[in-house]
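Hi support team,

I'm opening this ticket because the web form for multi-chain structure prediction keeps timing out on my end. I have pasted the exact lines I submitted so you can reproduce it. The total is 226 residues across two entries, so I didn't expect it to be a heavy job. Is there a limit I'm missing, or should I split the entries? Thanks in advance, R.K.
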Amino acid sequence: GDSVTQMEGPVTLSEEAFLTINCTYTATGYPSLFWYVQYPGEGLQLLLKATKADDKGSNKGFEATYRKETTSFHLEKGSVQVSDSAVYFCALLPGDYKLSFGAGTTVTVRA
Amino acid sequence: EPEVTQTPSHQVTQMGQEVILRCVPISNHLYFYWYRQILGQKVEFLVSFYNNEISEKSEIFDDQFSVERPDGSNFTLKIRSTKLEDSAMYFCASSERTGGGAEQYFGPGTRLTVT
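Hello R.K., no limit was hit. The queue was backed up. Here is the completed structure from your submission:
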């Protein structure tokens, strides 16, 4: 079935460091791919998305490229801030309704 | 900016009791969802709802669960007879459309604790 495998955390970084969170997926067809972020004490917020191969989603300095050949959607940010500390979820939408989530990666950025 | 709201933020109930979790989706959205996250596990899809009908449900969504849109703004999840294993964070979400790239917007969640 459809599934998402996400890099395990936790990840701890210093401010201004480069962040990569790996995400690979298994799906039939052409799913849409998403990154959601959950800040402490809050709900899931959509961070970015991509709907077809080679699409790049971007938001708030984060980027992810839909790579069909490697079935991946890795999240990157060039220079993280303390405010980026959160749990990041990769998700795929293979059909109309059901989002399938990865396990989440906890990122802590230290000043 | 419009947002999905959920009440209560935390609900404690005894095993066997009925609970109703409430959600107010974004006002112009037509598709509604419930997900849950058991502590330490993945966020899991429960059910989607459109035009007053369930459009898709997971194997988790058995006969003890039901959903309803009782009026023009609320969307509820009822658990008829709670079990210990129902303890989880329950998220409501809504979207304007479905299919490729449709963005689902999530509420802050209701933490359900069954004792």
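A quick check on our side: The mean pLDDT of chain B is 95. Let us know if the file doesn't open in your viewer.
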